[in-house]
Amino acid sequence: xxxxxVPRAADQAAFDAIASELIAGxxxxxxxxxAGRLYYEATVGLPETEPSFMILQxxxxxxxxxxDVVQRRLGRFGQPATWxxxxxxxxxxxxxARSHGLxxxxxxxxxxxxxxxxxxxxxxxxxxxxLLSGFLALxxxxxxAAVASVDLMQPIDVIEKSYRSRFRxxxxxxxxxxxxxxxxxxxxxxxLDLYRLLHADVAGRVTRGPESWRSTGVLLxxxxxxxxxxxxxxxxxxxxxxxxxxxxxYYASGAYRREMFANPISHALMAEAIAASQIAxxxxxxxxxxxxxxxxxxxxxxxxxFKRGFGANIRAGMTYRLSSAIEKPAKEKEL
Length: 335
Hints:
The protein is an alpha+beta fold.
């Protein structure tokens, strides 16, 4: 048989080694990287199971699906799972591989009694796309997913000229009026403590537990991320955290004392984070998801406007969502 299923459970180390080499092709690579595993396991907890699998076509990897299951939800650390297509052979053979992948996905949903699922895959290539029609047949609803990113292979002056003109004005103001530093390596521990306190103060509450912050510190110390801090007259007024997933730097979080200034301060920190990520050898900077369309709230539209001002490159995919009409048990509702 030309098509073969290879579950992750057959050889976890070999499977994970193959997956780690493919993260650059994923729309959202962080949850699927070794750094992301450390961060998310400390932040959201260990998954109940990881039924990831690969479909081989003619002996070559054609499809890899990376997912986990928590409380009857299929995704990846609370975010969408990924369906990544690797083979560029004949369409009929690729459709055969897709059929087997969809069949395995259907089996997993039955075995694990899945109530909710989110999976991000490639955009449909035609109206009769086998993947799209297959997800629809399983009851999933498709929605376009988009991520704003910066190509770090360009010279930094070219990158900064691509920023929205008003953003460039804000960046110049921030560089002239704030003391901005980028920290990565063993010295990051003390800086992260300052950022943690700033984050809680700006948010008005503690949003992450100590294990999550501890894992972030480990990644910064290993130079798998960087922290950008801004101060004015000796007072910490802003911070921005970046985590790395292979060659991609990811804007993870930010906290800013916006009320202290007439001008926005986040723009200069973002520009510094992008430049520092290029110096660190990363090839792409993901500013984050861009939510548009009629379903986006005003806040989401404003966030999208900010991200697109830096990340002019929009990478797109399709996220398939399933929300079962089956009512969850009362105990699960309380969690």
